[in-house]
Amino acid sequence: MNDTALQTAKELLSHSKKIVVIGHKNPDGDAIGSCLALSFFLKKLGHDTQVLMPNDFPEFLKWLPGCENILLFEKDREETTKLVNEADIIFTLDFNALNRTGELGTVLEKVTTHFIMIDHHQQPDSYAVVTYSDVTMSSTSEMVYHFIDKLEGLKKIDASIATNLYAGIMTDTGSFRFPSTSATTHKVIAHLIECGANNSAIHQNIFDTNSPDRMKLLGVALENMVILEEYHTAYITLSQKELDAHNFRKGDTEGFVNYSLSIKGIVFAVIFIENKQESITKISFRSKGNFSVNEFARTHFHGGGHTNAAGGRSEKSLKATVKEFISILPKYKNALNHA
Ligand SMILES: [Mn+2]
User: Fold this and answer.
1) From the CA of 327, how far away is ligand 1's center (Å)?
2) Which end of the chain, N or C, is surrounded by fewer C-beta atoms within 10 Å?
3) Residue 25 to residues 52, 300, 334: CA-CA distances in angstroms?
4) Domain boundary residue among 207, 223, 257?
């Protein structure tokens, strides 16, 4: 964030405002953590704040301090639309384009108030009066920490803010192991622990929450894994039938794709998940090194994200989507062999 942007942000926040803080559709730990932490901080500055999400978030995040007060657009359209329309400032966190909020995006596009974007995804849109975008950052939660720092507010970080930021950074960095984890990330984490984040409890609350159904579904996913050695690629499929047989709940398949990437020699991992209700196939891409799944997802599967983690979708059936995927791979053979 440059000085002018910081100055604008400071002026906008110089007296009490009605503020709405919004994360992306299908919110993850970083979206929820960053929004809740920022909202707590803004309350301490004397603002009237409310966190909104387009739709519901996974069970394993439903203990984060303040999450019980999050309003969902999907459940409460009238109230959330009113809040958005009456807001003096709208913070949009952890996404780079208004359409990442799904249908809520069409409401946001009509709003004429001040937007402030804090985000680490590539190629941000320019709807905000303040755009704090940094694709080198581990997470939006880390950026919220730096934002608080720039506003000289580090002393205001309490256990609730620290816990949310810690959870956001931890989930977006695969527990501090992705390349985006910097020395600064670890310094931020150290300070958050000093401010009251209970690191061990946070890890347990988020990771040790498997249901027997989820573990068995993981077994099916691993059984379905296909390895394409010549492309250093491994992919997993899960059909609606398989999901139903294991009482699939939102968030159950989170992290499955990373198992493929843990195989020696694999640099490109993909999971295809059938969604009969929306008649689409949802896709998650992960990579190692310089193979850009952001580019791959953007070019072929209506998606995008980061260099090493991206999402996409296809209107085709599970089978046809996988077939299409395999037909594209030869174009990337060279890149995959030199990732
Ligand atoms: Mn993020």
Assistant:
1) 30
2) C
3) 10, 21, 34
4) 207
Region of poorest pLDDT, from 142-146, 206-210, 227-231, 320-324: 206-210
Distance 117 CA to ligand 1 centre (A): 13
Q: How far away, in angstroms, is 3 Cα from ligand 1 center? A: 24
Q: Are residues 220 and 190 in the same domain?
A: no
Q: Are residues 158 and 295 in the same domain?
A: no
Q: Indicate the residue type of 283.
A: I
Angle, nearest 10°, between helix axes 140-150 and 159-172? Answer: 140
Same domain, residue pair 119 and 81: yes
Q: Helices 183-194 and 140-150, interaxial angle, to 10°?
A: 70
Enclosing domain of residue 27: 3-207
Q: How many domains does the chain have?
A: 2
What would the mean pLDDT of 182-186 be, rounded to a whole number?
Answer: 98
CA of 24 to the centre of ligand 1 (A): 10
Q: Tell me the whole-structure pTM to 2 decimals.
A: 0.86
Q: Give percent above pLDDT 70 in the chain.
A: 100
Say if residue 141's pLDDT is above 90: yes
Ion ligand 1 neighbours (CB, 5 A) are 30, 94, 139-140, 172
CATH code of the domain covering residue 288: 3.10.310.30
